[in-house]
């Protein structure tokens, strides 16, 4: 079993935990773990998540770190090491970049989206493996990557660059899961569909209603519904699940 059986709750690290899906994951995880949220710029939002968790009797810490900046991630991990022993990483921080067709996308947009969504997830996962792998003296753990239904749909005409980062995340999930399966670490991904968070602010109302109409369940998902899926994957109930990519998108 991957989970630690100690009285001290293990650390549950969520990148991009200040808002949206990450904040929902952090709040739910705080029932069982000491939660550490990483965020880039939303200090007030991150503080609100921490205060909410503490108000409910949980333990939470917020650390400012741009996951697309290796030095910042390494510094965040140094702070995490002082808090305790890491048990779970949720690679959730993600951006879409500006919308546009591939024939118009800028070098900077593609670079930024890949740097945050892919390079950031790799660096955070590398540091987690170095701490949790039994081959490195750790006690095992769980990594959960937040992918997107876009990885399969391709998001033509708007966000092919974003969709491609999530395809990379799916592939990383499969490869890393096999690489560390014998080292006590399970690696899985969740592929959300259309979830009601701030990330939708870059879509027009018309675009959103067209997308909702295509969802078999006929509605957007809530961040809390993704959080439940993530917490199940993190739990001992999923002890034989690794390399899985779980669709949570209302049938889309
Ligand atoms: P969101 O509401 O926009 O929140 C994004 C979070 O990521 C914020 O906490 C933000 O912190 C953080 N973040 C962004 N860039 C960062 C960076 N460079 N370093 C550290 N933190 C950073 O987004 P969301 O909808 O919750 O999405 C979360 C994840 O789910 C993303 O990976 C996204 O691709 C994926 N997803 C979302 C949907 C959806 O429909 N919402 C669907 C499929 C997949 P700051 O505010 O401080 O920048």
TrEMBL record:
Pfam families: adh_short_C2 (PF13561). One of its GO terms (molecular function) is glucose 1-dehydrogenase [NAD(P)+] activity. SUPFAM superfamilies: NAD(P)-binding Rossmann-fold domains. Its EC number is 1.1.1.47. Keywords: Oxidoreductase. Belongs to the short-chain dehydrogenases/reductases (SDR) family. This is NAD(P)-dependent oxidoreductase.
């Amino acid at each position: 079993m991957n989970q630690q059986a100690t009285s001290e709750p293990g650390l549950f690290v969520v990148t991009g935990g200040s808002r949206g899906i990450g904040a929902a994951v952090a709040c739910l995880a705080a029932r069982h773990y000491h939660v550490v949220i990483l965020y880039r710029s939303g200090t007030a939002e991150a503080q609100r998540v921490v205060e909410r968790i503490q108000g409910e009797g949980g333990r939470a810490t917020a650390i400012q770190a741009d996951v697309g900046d290796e030095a910042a991630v390494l510094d965040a991990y140094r702070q995490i090491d002082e808090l305790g022993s890491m048990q779970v990483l949720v690679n959730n921080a993600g951006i879409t970049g500006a919308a546009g067709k591939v024939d118009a996308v800028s070098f900077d947009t593609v670079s930024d989206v890949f740097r945050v969504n892919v390079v950031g997830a790799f660096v955070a996962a590398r540091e987690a493996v170095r701490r949790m792998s039994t081959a490195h003296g750790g006690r095992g753990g769980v990594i959960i990557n937040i992918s997107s239904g876009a990885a399969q749909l391709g998001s033509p005409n708007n966000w092919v660059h974003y969709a491609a980062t999530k395809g990379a995340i799916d592939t990383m999930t499969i490869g890393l899961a096999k690489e560390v399966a014998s080292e006590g670490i399970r690696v899985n991904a969740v592929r959300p569909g259309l979830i009601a968070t701030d990330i939708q602010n870059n879509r027009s109302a018309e675009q959103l209603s067209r997308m909702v109409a295509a969802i078999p369940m006929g509605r957007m998902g809530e961040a809390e519904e993704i959080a439940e899926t993530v917490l199940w994957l993190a739990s001992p109930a999923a002890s034989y699940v690794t390399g899985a990519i779980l669709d949570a998108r209302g049938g889309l």
